Amino acid sequence: MANYIQKRIITGILIIVVSIVLNFTLIKLSPGDPIRVLSGQDSPSPQMQAELTAKYGLDQSVFMQFINYVGNLAKGDLGVSILSNQPVLKMIMERIGPTLLLALTTAIIALIIGTALGIYCARYRGSRFDNIVSGSSYIFDSMPNFWLGMMLIMIFSSSLGWLPTSGMVDLRTNYTGFNYYLDVFKHWLLPATTIVLVTVPYYFRIARSSIIQVMSEDFITTLRATGMSESRIFNKYVFKNAILPTITVFGINLAYIVTGVAIVEIVFSWPGMGSFMLDAIHRRDYPLLMGIYLLLSISVAIMMIIVDVIYAYLDPRILYKER
Amino acid sequence: MVFLNVKKLNVEYYTKNNSVHAVQDISFQLDQRDTIGIVGESGSGKSTLAMAILQLIPKNTGKVTGKIEMKSKRLLDLTPSEIREVRWVDIAAVFQKSMNALSPVHRVGNQLSDIYRLHEKNIPHKMLKQRIFQLLDMVNLPSHVYKAYPHELSGGMMQRVSIALGLMHNPKLLILDEATTALDVVTQTQILKELMELEEKMGLTRIMITHDLSIVASSCKKVAVMYSGQIVESGFVKDVLYNPLHPYTKSLIKSVPSLKGENRKITAIKGSIPDLSKPIEGCVFAARCPYAKEVCFQSAPENSELENNRAVKCHFVKGGEFVWEEGKQTIV
After folding, report:
1. How is it placed in the membrane, per its record (chain A) (predicted)?
2. ipTM for the complex?
C-alpha cells in the first residue's frame, strides 16, 4: 500500500509539472494583447507600449519568461494581477473560501442524496417510486444549471420573496455571530439547491445501475443459497462492491470543484472563483489566469491521488494488478 | 426410506410476452447416501432444477409447482424464514463458475466465517476461526487462503473453497451444479476423488449436475438424462450409460469422443433444443430423433417404468428393449 501511494504521489507531481508548462504555453499562444488592455487605449503610444512591456518582463525571450515564472512560483509568488495590481495569491485566497463553501457542501449533499436514492430505487426496481425518480433524473440532468438557477430566483426570491436573490451576505446589515451564519445560509440555499438538483442525477444513476449489476453477480446467488438474509447481503456485500463507481464520479467531481460551479456562482453573484475567473479571461489578466489554472491543476492532481488511494483501499484487486 | 422425493415438479419462467416451461413434470427419488448425476445439453433445464430444489427461483420471474419432500419437510410450502433455516444446513450447493462464487472485495476467511455464523450464531470467535482452518484443511488448501482475496487464488483453489463452503455445516444434501466443468481434468479428478471421500465420511446425498458423462460414470450411482425440461431416461448408471434405451441417451453417448480404440467419427446431434415457450404436442425429442415416426410427433410417450428403478420416455421402448421395427430389435 505504501508503495502504491508513493507511486500515485509521484504521478501527481508529474501532472502538476506538466500542467505548469502547458499553462504557460497555452496562455502565450492565446490571442489578444495584454498591453493594449493595460494601457486602456486602442492604440497606445509606442513609448507607453515599451514601458509596459519592460515592466512586466514581456520584452524578454519566452524561455526567460518561463524561467522567471517558475522561479517566482518556487518562492510562492504567483505574480501580480495586471488589472488590480494585487498579488494573485492573495486575490485567489479571498475568493476561494466562498467557492469551497458552496461547492464542497453541495458535492457532499448531492453524493448522499443521489446514492441513497439510487440504492433505494435499485432495491425496489420497477416500483412507482423508482419510475418517478428515474424519470425526473433525466429531466434534471438535461436542465441547464443557469436556467434552473434563474427559475429558482424567479419563484423563491422575486415572486415569493422568501430568499435573497444574490450575494453571500446582506451588505446593508452588519450581522455578527449566529445571525451572520443564518444570513449566509439564506443566501447559500438557492445556489446550493440549483447545484444539488443538477448533480444528484449523476450519483443516482451510477449508484442504481451498479447496484443492479452487482445484484446479478454469481456470488449473490451463493450468498442467498447459504440462507443469508437479503438485508445482510445488501448491507455487507452489495454495498461495498457497488460503491466503487460512485467514488470515481465523486473524485472527478471534486477535482473540478474550484471551477465546477462557476456558472451558478455568476447567476447568483456568489463572490467565488467563478466570476473572478471569467473576468480574468475577458481582460487577459495573464498572471491571474495562470494562478487560477495552477490552482486547478494542483487540486485535480491531489484529488486523483486521494481517489486512487480510497479505491485501492476498497477494492483489493487494484493493488494486486499494480504488483 | 426415501430421503428426497421430487414429484411432478414444474418450473415456468415468465418473460415479457410469453412463459418458458423450463422444467416439466419431473419426478425422482433419492435414498440417503445416494448419488445422482443429471445430464443433458445446455438449456435442458438442469440448472433450473437445481435452483428449484434450492428455492432460489425469484418469485417475480418464475413459478415452481409440484412437490419437493425432504424427509418429512415439504420444501415448497415453507415460509421464507423456514427456507433460510433449511438452506446450507440441510441443502448446500457448489455452483458453476466458482471464480465468482464469492465477493471479490472481501477476504475468503471473512466470508466463510460470515456464512458459518449464519447457522451457528453463538460460536466464539476463536472456535470459528479454528473451524474455518479445519474446513480449508479438509479440502487440501493451505491456511493462508484464509487471508486471501478470491482473485489471488487459482480456479482449482476457488473450487476447493466453494466445496469447503458447501460442506461447512455437514449438509444432508449437496447439489453440485457444473462444479468441476471449468477445471482441467487433473484437478477435476483430484477434486472429485476428495469429494467422494468426504461424502463417504459425512454420509452425504449428492446431486451432480453436469454435461460430462464421464464424471457421472465415475462418480455417481444413478443418472437422469434431461432433455428440454423432461427426464427422458433414468436409472442406475450401469444400466443407463452401458445399455442406453432412449435415442437421446444413445446419441449423447455417441457424441463423446473416446480415447481408446480406433478413431471413430463423433456424431453430433443435429438441430437444437426446441423452443420451450410453445407447447410440444408429441415427444420432445422427435424433431431431432433419427428414429422418429409419425406417432412421435402426435402424442407424448408414456414414462415406461422398467425393472431396477429404470424409466424411459419413448414410444419404442417395450418390455425393457428398444423395438423400432415390429418384431425386430434395433441396435445402434
Report:
1. Multi-pass membrane protein
2. 0.81
